[in-house]
Design a protein that fits this description.
9-stranded mixed sheet; alpha/beta; flat
Length: 820
């Protein structure tokens, strides 16, 4: 893959790709070329791979006799211009020079600079800013010609051991060729694709290559996302197919990173990048009047309108276990990993070894960061110094200054500084040291975080020694960790932020496997993809007919009803239908154990077990009382990402409103629906109603207004019999049925009975059977009565016919006598 950047010196910048099949090289070429075009650059994609897949991704395939990119080998450099398909209707798509899928690779006598000469013609220089070349999967004359025209090479690889060995082998051959042919080449980098950051072997393989080739030669990984393959099959770049998905975020961030690191002077005609970076997708990023340093914490940058104040001091206060140290350390880690800003962590309470041990569960790879970008200082004051009274912060700051210069640190954390300030018997001394620290931070322009304990009593007031610091800092963050009805609840609130707007209300947050996530919902709402018109089966054919074709893909579906009305059964039918189509599905139950649900649904011919064994279905059981609603939301999202789920079932979602979650449940469910829509995931939730009136939903969450489709299940009791009934309350965008249908469960499966009315009332169960039996008996009696009447008429007809015959004989005798 080549990318040419046109600067004032009119030089070319090209990016080449790895000579190996099955590594996502064509996917990378397609989405990078589209990413450059979306940024406002004039982009060209040259398909040098004779399979022609890059052109196919944009619907540009050369027919028999039409010019192709491979014509440069037979007709010379000028032939390239004639092969280009202009994308005049889509300015955010690159122009395409399609491949000749019938071409044979040229021999070794081809001039290596043939493509370079084609790209340096005046017309090509004037027409394009970036050229991306999709190379063939073998190191032959085509590959060498592409490399000779390149300013940069990207080598995609899947992070598993066999692929790692392939990268090493390629690098050895590549370097030998580069010495003679690739004079224009300035940049070489490795790109992990189809990567899963939660898989240990993936992390280890990436770190192995980082150690072998250097930090700057490893690009941020492209996470595994089935939508990348779906977008390719649909003939679209990922930005069109799923603009808010992981694949679009990662390739947009990669495009932004390449332009920033390798071609920093290249800008779009409008002077700005029209890309969505990984960090920007999580934040509001309003800069206000102060510079912002992103924390990289999901939701927090949105709450702070972009992040921490750059070069200023932020105070984090909270009670024991509220997450102060986690928040500070996670911000430091993200600064080093995402922003390239080295940081220093000064520990006044716990030792750095204990802090590192506690943070290992988050998977932040602190050991690797400590080599270059992260440093820990143990600054716990010794008992002897405290007893002698000869203690201040001067010595620690002097040592810290040396380390700041050595590391080039941009961020610093002072963890539990109250442990030191509270030791000064003289309040004036404490103020003096606080002022000294604040001035030192201002002088060095560091983005600083200071954590301090707030008493859980007295409305969370901090110690007296920190009162002065509260007024001095530019930003203050308050963390709370409370127990509400025996359920842990956490929230974060920005107390002040000089020079910037911010979210003033308290916002819930949770601490999950990857650290802190803040429940700030505004970012997801602005990223919703286009509404899909694709229909999905509910798993019940007659219900699909009632829904005018089934559920919409990516919709939120709500199944409500009293206990035993078959909510879980309908949800299970949807899951089985999705799995049967090969769509990976997550089934989360907050009520019954997995084994019971599988057994119960098997009784109505719904086979979950086979899909569990095949791995298409992932089942997760979790009692709602074991965690707050926020933690459940984090777990659901994490499981869905790991499983790459296209469909998610939560049964029952109303359980999240129990045990202290009533105040946060609706917000959590609303963000769950927003998240599923942004990810293009079809979400089916069941909800238990406290009453049996579908028009007044009885769940504490009151979530019926959030659903796109609302199906209500209830009981109709007649003649000592209870029968299940189904009705569609709403289904947005559908000409759905307004009938109430009887839901019948049997060993053969789920069915909906035909509507049967009598006297203006829908009859079900025994009443329907009795009425149908009576109707059948009446029909039989009417038939018998008609038969009797028919028999009587037949007898009368015979008698009359006999009489007629006798009269006719008499008449004939009279006539004969008259004429004789």
């Amino acid at each position: 893959m080549n990318a040419r950047h046109h600067r004032n010196d009119r030089s070319f910048r090209d990016i080449g790709r790895q000579p190996q099949g099955g590594t996502g090289k064509t996917t990378t070429a397609v989405n990078l070329a589209a990413g450059f075009a979306r940024s406002g650059l004039r982009s060209l994609l040259i398909d040098f791979d004779t399979q022609g897949h890059s052109g196919l991704a944009f619907g540009a395939v050369a027919g028999r006799g039409e010019p192709t990119a491979h014509a440069v080998f037979s007709n010379g450099p000028e032939a390239l211009q004639a092969s280009i398909r202009m994308q005049t209707a889509r300015r955010d798509w690159p122009d395409i020079a399609p491949a000749d899928i019938g071409s044979t690779h040229p021999g070794g006598n081809v001039s290596p600079d043939l493509l370079a000469r084609a790209l340096t013609t005046p017309r090509m220089r004037e027409a394009y800013d970036v050229v991306v070349i999709d190379t063939p999967p073998s190191l032959d004359a085509l590959m060498v010609t592409a490399l000779a025209a390149s300013n940069a090479v990207i080598v995609p690889f899947v992070p598993h051991p066999l692929a790692i060995e392939g990268v090493r082998q390629f690098s050895r051959v590549f370097l030998s060729v580069r010495l003679g042919a690739m004079q224009r080449l300035h940049h070489v980098a490795l790109l992990p694709v189809m990567a899963n950051p939660t898989v240990l072997v993936h992390r280890r393989m990436i770190e192995t290559l980082r150690h072998d080739f250097g930090e700057r030669r490893i690009l941020d990984p492209i996470r595994s996302d089935i939508r990348l393959a779906e977008a390719f099959a649909a003939g679209q770049p990922i930005y069109d197919y799923m603009p808010s998905g992981r694949g679009a975020q990662d390739y947009a961030a990669l495009t932004h990173s390449i332009l920033g690191r390798w071609f920093p002077h290249q800008t779009s005609p409008g002077g700005e990048m029209h890309l969505i970076s990984k960090e920007q997708s999580m934040t509001d990023n309003v800069m206000d009047s102060v510079g912002k340093s992103a924390t990289g914490i999901f939701g927090l940058d949105g709450v702070m309108r972009g992040g921490l104040p750059t070069g200023r001091t932020t105070l984090i206060e909270g009670g024991p276990g509220s997450g102060k140290t986690v928040l500070a350390l996670q911000t430091l880690v993200n600064g080093a990993k995402l922003c390239g800003e080295p940081g220093i962590f000064v520990a006044f309470e716990e030792s750095s070894q204990r802090i590192l041990a506690n943070a290992n569960s988050f998977g932040w790879d602190l050991a690797e960061l400590q080599r270059e970008n992260l440093f820990f200082i143990d600054a716990q004051p010794s008992y002897e110094l405290l007893q002698s009274g000869r203690f201040d912060l001067g010595g620690m700051l002097a040592a810290l200054e040396i380390k700041v210069k050595e590391l080039g640190a941009k961020r610093v954390v002072f963890d539990a500084i109250d442990m030191v300030l509270d030791l000064f018997e003289n309040r004036q001394l404490a103020r003096r040291e606080t002022y000294r620290l604040h001035e030192w931070l201002n002088d060095h322009g560091l983005t600083a975080l200071i954590t301090a304990k707030a008493s859980p009593l007295a409305a969370g007031a901090t110690s007296e020694a920190l009162e002065f610091l509260q007024f001095m800092v530019d930003c203050s963050i308050f963390l709370r960790h409370d127990m509400i009805e025996s359920t842990s609840q956490r929230n974060i609130r920005i107390g002040k932020f000089r020079g910037s707007s911010f979210e003033e209300n308290a916002t819930p947050f949770g601490i999950g496997p990857q650290g802190i996530e803040v429940a700030f919902g505004n970012e997801a709402r602005s990223q919703r993809p286009k509404a899909s018109t694709e229909r999905m089966s509910s798993g019940v054919d007659r219900l699909d007919t009632m829904l005018d074709g089934g559920y919409y893909r990516g919709a939120g579906i709500l199944l409500t009803g009293s206990p035993g009305t078959a909510k879980t059964t309908l949800a299970g039918a949807f899951a089985v239908s999705a799995c049967s189509r090969g769509e990976r599905t997550l089934f989360v139950t907050l009520d019954s154990p997995e084994e019971e649900v599988v057994r119960n649904l098997a009784a109505v011919n719904l086979d979950l077990d086979s899909h569990l064994k095949s791995g298409v279905l992932l089942f997760k059981t979790s009692r709602s009382t074991t965690a707050s609603a926020e933690i459940h939301l984090m777990r659901i999202r994490e499981l869905a990402h790991k499983h790459q789920a296209r469909c998610v079932v939560v049964d029952p979602i109303s359980a999240l409103s129990k045990s202290g979650n009533s105040g946060t449940a609706r917000n959590v469910i609303e963000r769950l629906i927003d998240w599923s829509k942004a990810e293009g995931i079809t979400l089916v939730c069941t909800s238990l109603l406290e009453g049996d009136n579908p028009l007044s939903e009885g769940t504490a969450a009151q979530i019926s207004t959030l659903a796109d489709t609302w199906i209500h299940l209830n009981y109709l009791v007649h003649a000592g019999e209870r029968n299940r009934a189904l009705s569609i309350i709403k289904s947005r965008g559908s000409n759905h049925s307004n009938q109430v249908r009887e839901l019948v469960l049997s060993a053969s499966g789920i069915s909906l009975a035909d509507v049967y009315t009598a006297g203006g009332e829908v009859l079900m169960g025994a009443l329907r059977w009795e009425k149908e039996s009576a109707d059948r008996q009446a029909k039989i009696e009417r038939k018998a009565m008609l038969q009797r009447k028919s028999n009587a008429l037949s007898t009368e007809t015979v008698i009359l016919q006999s009489q007629i015959d006798a009269l006719q004989q008499q008449l004939a005798g009279k006539k004969k006598t008259l004429h004789s």
